[in-house]
Amino acid sequence: MRETAGILTEFAHVVGDPRAAARLTVTGPVDVLPSIYRVTAAATISVAAAAHGAAELWAARSGEDVLPVSVDTRHAAAAFRSERLLRIAGRPAPSPWDALSGYYRAGDGRWVQMHCNLPHHRAGVLDLLRTRADPVAVARAVARYNAADLEAELQSMGMCASMAREEREWWAHPAGQAVAGLPLAETSRLGDGGDARGGPSAVGRTRGTRAPAMPAQALSAQAQARPSPSRPAAGLRVLDMTRVIAGPVCGRVLASFGADVLRVGAAHLGDARALVIDTGFGKRSTFLNLRVASDARRLRELVAQADVVVQAYRPKALDRLGFGPEALARIRPGIVCATISAYGRVGPWSGLRGFDSLVQTASGIALAGARASDSDRPVPLPAQALDHATGYLAAHGVLAALARREREGGSWHVRLSLAQTGRWLVSLGERDTFDLPEPKDNEIGPYRRTMRSEFGELSYIAPAGSVGGATHGYDRPPSSLGAHQAGWAPIR
């Protein structure tokens, strides 16, 4: 009971509403996943936060009270491992991990993690190390380096690697200190120069408010949408400009609540097939190369009719192409932008590429796992928990910002990072659950659904969390990258 009370208290803190705890019902065991950290609690709170954001949006659009939300800890834990639990035509999805990715012992005895899952990162590591694509050869090459020097050299090349640090080392590092100065998530109003609301999208509004007239270009699918507790984001248009897990999870959550989500990528940027499928539910996918004038023009046209843009490029990367948050707010007053990064918006590592496992390694999480489990090598979390938590928390930020837009207008910017989420996880405290067995198939079964797709029949984890007891889900199966035209879906 005390652990559940702690979850409710932390949930209310995360969503910024002390009354929210009374509207959350948590079922299931306190601990599901084995770890030294409270990963199950983080999963439950993150999923609950996204559901609460959906409840806030429904209340803002309908004029009704905020509905209660519920989460089962077993379902939340399964959702945090969705890419591992995906089945394609009855078989486990192919692993996104490259054979060269992993931990290597440097010459000074410290561990360095290489992330080689994307082809250009793999090629860059092999080029620097001057070795062949073989884990044994890579291990011999890494052993010739000091760990910190190798990390710095790979980072300077734009590659992805982290030296394994203790927590105290991370918080003494300038990058760790920069993260320590940031909240879990930040939401700020963009200077759009107007009081833009969502247009005639609402079936009702917060009592006593009235939206000003909107220009014709801002009228979108919202005008014909019929939102409900299971589809509070119906009619809202989302551009998902992300890859891998955290950003795509955010887009997938928004799709599960009824949003029209268009994933925008570029043909030359690869992605792991299993991740494309797992995070592609409810979305369409198109290619645009923003360095091509006609494609950039088409994106501006899409933005002008959008409600949300989620992006996970390195900080300022889209600004240089004319698609930073302030520019987006000028193109489409009333836009909600979500920016997800690896190491936050400030500090010496703010511009670095990074992934969940690398942040775990750099910030001390992996070494804490090794110490608690008596392992002689770093031990990561039992899920890509920083990715998934950041995705769900970003979805909460977007949904809550859309609710604010309905009530008070404005364009909004939501910012999160994997490192900020990691700091939050650590702040929940340690709880050794390494003796827990892996969840069995029959325990996961109640949370599975099936759907036919171009890849074969998919067995996947259904969306976790509910609003007012309503079930939400996906309107379409995943598709291949670039399979659709760069346009919005017709009203259904």
From TrEMBL:
Superkingdom of source: Bacteria
GO molecular function, one term: catalytic activity
Signal sequence bounds: none
InterPro entries linked to this entry: CoA-transferase_III, CoA-Trfase_fam_III, CoA-Trfase_III_dom_1_sf
Stretches for region Disordered: 189-215, 471-492
Pfam families for the chain: CoA_transf_3
The protein's name: Carnitine dehydratase
Lineage of source species: Bacteria, Bacillati, Actinomycetota, Actinomycetes, Frankiales
